[in-house]
User: Fold this.
Amino acid sequence: MQPEPWTTRRTALAGPPRMVLCFARMADVTTDPGIFAASSASSEDARWRVVARNVFPFIVVFGLWEIVARSGIFPPRLFPSLVTVAKTFVDLTISGILIHHTFDTVLRLLVGFFLAAAVGVALGILMGRSRRAEDIALPLVSIAAPIPGLAYAPLFLLWFGLGNKSTVLLVAFVSAFPIIFNTWTGVKAVKEVWVRSAQAMGADDRRLFAKVILPGSLPYILTGLRLGLAQAWRILVGIEMLAAVPWGLGWMIFGAREFLNTDVMLSGVVVIGVLGLALEKLVFEKIERYTVMRWGMMT
Assistant:
């Protein structure tokens, strides 16, 4: 005789009898392969939809560019086709010229941006936590920030001379302003109830900063770093030509303009765009994923 799928058993304990329901599933648990196949197929479809949604704008822009390039509205030397740009990009990469320009530009960018990030975050936090520091620094930052970065270039060239020093310092100076503003805003935006709750539980200043102030202001700090990086790119491309540095994407782009080499200019622009996208995906998004998104502060 086969046992029932579910059995009920009475057990006697000391004292009044108690009914104990012991459920024992006698049949083996089976899995349907079709369920897993359908789930895998749906996740694969969702992944392809995301890829298609991201690629579609580029297909549209590239298609319109190619139509205009082949229509003859502009001379081919001023408006080259994508095939010409791709060929020039490959030739410059194989020869090592584009790699050399890119390496020098990235090195200047990273050094200047790291200086801006260190000074900007520190000053922004100090302004947010100290009323005296805010009263002293905020008017100066508010006056200097709206001035275009290239307006400072002649001063830095006179003070620090031609070359990498003036380039790096100008990049750091200009890109620090959005970092300062956003860090200061983030510190001021931390809810007072969080601070008072931490102080009521005995948190000292160091733990209050590490556990409340910094996590609460981190979304604003990351936004400031993004804006500062974009500002650093813009000023770096311009100052590389003015500072008479021998290598760099800005120098390459402006030098190609003198000879109407639009394909070389576009190759440099493509590299700048790819580097910016790589920094966004590989640095900022990973920082967000392991900090503010993990803490539930962003979705």
The chain has two domains: 45-74, 82-290. The chain has a mean pLDDT of 81. Residues 30 and 36 are 13 Å apart (CA to CA).
